[in-house]
Amino acid sequence: MYEIKYKKSALKGLRKAPPEVRKRIIGALKQIARHTDQFKGDWKPLKGSVFWRLRVGRYRAICSLDSGELTLLVLKIGVRGDIYK
């Protein structure tokens, strides 16, 4: 099981999200941390990058997986139009 860590920018984005979206994002991240290879949601590696993307509605979470330290680092959370800038 991976430990979930949040960067300050990810926590800021999470606070801005509506409460129901916030719950769905946190739930999805917990599922990914528990069973990374068995997650059924929209979880993909970003092309040309070492980062991963979680899609929950119109929100995205950009993450990094560290298999050595077993950490899931959430870098950014936000609306699709703003997250890739």
Which short descriptors sum up this protein?
85 residues; alpha+beta; YaeB-like fold; 5-stranded mixed sheet; 35% strand; globular
In summary, what is this structure?
By secondary structure, this protein is an alpha+beta fold.
How would you sum up this structure, described in words?
Helix content is 34%, strand content 35%. A hairpin with a 2-residue loop joins strand 3 (52-56) and strand 4. It is of the alpha+beta class and 85 residues long. It has a 5-stranded mixed sheet with strand order 1-5-4-3-2. The mean pLDDT is 94. The radius of gyration is 12 Å and the shape is globular. The longest helix has 16 residues, at 19-34. It has 3 helices and 5 strands. It has a single domain, classed as 2-Layer Sandwich (YaeB-like fold).
Give the helix/strand layout.
Elements (H helix, E strand, L loop, with lengths): L2 E4 L1 H9 L2 H16 L7 E4 L6 E5 L2 E8 L4 E9 H4 L2
Parallel strand pairs: 1-5
Antiparallel strand pairs: 2-3, 3-4, 4-5
